[in-house]
Amino acid sequence: MTSRFEVQIYYEDTDHSGVVYHANYLKYFERAREHMLGTAELRRLLVEDGIGFVVYKAELTYKKGAVFGDTITIETRADKESPYRAVFHQTAKRGAEVLVEGKVELVCVGRDEKLVTLPASAVAAMEAGSA
Q1: How far apart are CA 96 and CA 78, in angstroms?
Q2: SS3 for 26?
């Protein structure tokens, strides 16, 4: 299932040409993943269980830039690739127009910074498409 998250593009998001600075899409994709997994649960996992998500790999393909004043939608679909790794397929769109496509792979680590299995709550949120 696909989760959708809207992002308003502010002047501060753009570079000198008026187009969204390329690295900001990583922030937008991060917010969309947080929305999908649920802020309260992510916080609980971190504070109570000592589990955090870290980016293992990120690939982005830029097709067209958003501009100041746009509202874009980040569509996110996630797959459990292994007991330890989740793959998020993300697309930034302006209406039906695809602006940026991304594939972000995450793993979880414990307080000792060692790999741990994906929490059941995160897997359930990924399967549901949103928290």
Answers
A1: 20
A2: helix
Q: Tell me, what's the pLDDT at 25?
A: 98
Question: Is 15 tagged catalytic?
Answer: yes
The catalytic residue among 15, 70, 79, 112 is 15
Q: What is the CATH number of the domain that holds 80?
A: 3.10.129.10
Please report how the helices 24-37 and 120-128 are oriented relative to each other, as an axis angle in degrees rounded to 10. 100
Residue with tokens 């509202």: 71
Domain with 101 in it:
3-128
DSSP state of 11: G
Residue with tokens 């996992």: 45
What tokens appear for 26 in the block? 């990583």
Per-residue pLDDT tens digits for 73-118:
999 999 999 999 999 999 999 999 999 999 999 999 999 999 999 9
Instruction: State the virtual CA torsion across 3, 49, 103, 8 in degrees, nearest 10.
Output: 50
pTM recorded for the entire structure: 0.93
* CA distance linking residue 34 with residue 5, whole number of Å: 10
Q: Return the residue matching tokens 């496509």.
A: 101
Please state the domain count of the chain: 1
